[in-house]
Amino acid sequence: MINWRGLVLIMDEIDSNLIAALRHNARASLSTLAGIVGVTRATVRTRLEKLEKNGNILGYSVITKGDIAGQPVRALMMLEIEGRGTERVVARLTGLPEVRAVHTTNGKWDLVAEIGTEDLIGLDQILGNIRRFDGIQSSETSILLASRKVSKLI
What we know:
This protein is an alpha+beta fold. It has 2 domains: about 1-60, Arc Repressor Mutant, subunit A, CATH 1.10.10; about 65-145, Lrp/AsnC effector binding domain/regulation of amino acid metabolism (RAM) domain (Alpha-Beta Plaits, 2-Layer Sandwich), CATH 3.30.70.920. Helix content is about 40%, strand content about 20%. Helix 1 (about 15-25) crosses helix 2 (about 30-35) and helix 2 crosses helix 3 (about 40-55).
């Protein structure tokens, strides 16, 4: 497999297990990771350096309670865009503080917006605002009830 930089991404079982361990706890020490994966600390260090250099690991992050607590009502809004207005709609969406992320996608929906608000009234207001954007043909929103696993993507 080749990444967006054109670098070859070759991962074996050790690399995969190392990444899985980091997803569980990105702050784990080299010794802890070595014990989980079943290799030496030196091997973990070398593998991490390689995974970072070739682009398999792009960074590490922390998700705090405040990241979610500040906007306890979260939703995914799928949007169908008329014609060629996608970039214009993306620009408007990314300017809204309630919009945490915007993703392009395939299939029926052109965009998926991750939205967070303090309450349902705020969610209703932002959804109504977005639905009035020029270029929005249709939308569907799903409120996120509970998160079983949370990963921070770049």
